[in-house]
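Morning - iron/sulfur cluster inputs below, output right after.
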Amino acid sequence: MRDSFARKIDYLRISITDRCNLRCRYCMPEVGVPSVGHQAVMSYEELLRVARVAVDLGVRKIRITGGEPLVRKGLISFVSELSRLPQHPEITLTTNGLLLADNAVPLKQAGLSRVNVSLDSLQPERFAEMTRREGLDQVLRGIAAAEAADLGPIKINVVPILGVNADEIADFGRLTFVHPWQVRFIEFMPVSSGLDYTPEQLYPASKIEADLQQLAPLTREERHGIVGPARIYRLQGAQGTVGIIPAVSEHFCGDCNRLRLTADGQLRPCLFSQQEIDLLSILRQGCSDELLAELLGKSVRDKPERHGLRDADYTPGKRRMHGIGG
Ligand code: SAM
Ligand code: SF4
């Protein structure tokens, strides 16, 4: 599928739940988060139907996300069904890692290719402060289990926040000297209101890069396969790589290759778009695969050229990141 700006769209992110066992301060508040009711959550059968049509249209990579996807029952069977779709799309998962240690082997056996684990601090107290929960050791055990289960190369997602954890960029970068991981730094996105950090706490890509340069010379890496907006580098002498995702400070939209489906069945052309197509209602009215394909095509055509995060009139939307899937 090509959008109106000639971008190839071959990647679908499916959020399977808006619930989470952490409360990261850049993503959701501690309390007052009404969860989508069970009836309003897409069933696995419904998600599979959308995925099947998307694969027919050329989607080659499907990422399962949330909320925290590992809190939803039945995930392993869902992965197994997805991986058996025709054309065998690559199936990946983004997780906070808390429940990964026990699930890594079954996920691999079900056909999962790789995992991205979100981790914002290597310091236990700071981890607890940022996520409002304990659990750093558990996440590290999860990463080790995923690596042992051959779910690599492991990608670690870090959101550096000025005055909170941005001083750990070098520590995270150093991990790539001893592990073949890809440590990816994602700029903080003020996607919704009511978060604990302010847009002024965004730590820009240029500073992330400068901090990494302090460790060793950085060389840009060639990318192959299905590539999105991350810029990938290698620190001289490192086993792994580092990635920088300049979500806000630079326009990364030219490389956008994805559609998003929220847990309550809304198809979103852009992370920051308020324009959604209500696939849940349409599916439950008994729509045909042809109509589903038409709506996926419409969402691709609706993709904006770029997000409006830096525009003077930008206002954060109602959905928080845990409700979109990141
Ligand atoms: N719970 C899983 C996790 O944390 O990996 C999956 C869902 S989470 C919403 C997906 C990604 O979004 C995570 O890597 C998280 O760090 C990122 N994220 C959440 N809120 C963000 C924000 N305001 N700015 C930038 N990234 C954010
Ligand atoms: Fe949960 Fe992921 Fe959001 Fe953290 S970033 S609160 S782990 S959904």
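Note: The pocket of S-adenosylmethionine (ligand 1) is lined by residues 20, 26-27, 65-66, 68, 94-96, 118, 157, 159, 186, 188-189, 191, 321-322, 325-326 (CB under 6 Å).

O.
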